[in-house]
User: What shape does this take?
Amino acid sequence: MNNPFNFAGKAVIITGGGKGIGRGITECFLAAGADVLICGRTEPDSLPTAGGKTAEFVACDVRDVTQIEACVTRAVDLFGAVNVLVNNAGGAPYSDAASVSPRFSESIIQLNLIAPLNFSQAVNRIMQSQEEGGSIINIASVSTIRPSPGTAAYGAAKAGLVNLGGSLAVEWAPKVRVNAVIVGLTKTEQAHLHYGDEEGISAVAATIPLGRMAVPEDIGNACLFLASPAAAYVSGTSFAVHGGGEKPTFLAAAKSGA
Assistant: This one.
């Protein structure tokens, strides 16, 4: 039986693939044999490497449609195809919804929702012309399925991204599959900015049923599955990778009051 997770000869674009979760996703595809092009506004200090392969890099602000088109063209020039797109670039700093500027909110929605749509459109045109089509994976967040205080526009954009994927999966079928990964709390090189020191990270991890935060490789493995022939009948859905979610706070409150 052929290994469905052998990506040798497959071409993958990963936005924001040089750091954090994106770097973990990139390393997983490289280790599986894929040819990977990553993009970002600035080149990382070191390019992701795994399985004897190194990612290619192109500078691209995903909010700029012209730069998106140039990135996709570069991938086709390098690899001759685009088999997988992972829309990973995104994020948001903490902001108070009562006082944040409209311009700031618009920029967050542009980065986390409009940019993935524009990138998907550019790649879809390539995938529709390929005999085997392709797979698009949108990286969402647990902010999609629960309140997102302090990052309200981000949570709304990520929720929109999941809904968008469902619509594109219908419009672009049967050639192109579109899915989302709902990412839980993840320990990256910047985890301390969100959760404090190791003690704070451990305290957060204790709230997760599996007893730890995700690592980027966990998200990369989910992307490998969704892009692989093993998921050939999976489209228009979201795939939660959050360690069981978060323990309901009422359980702790009930125990403390007992």
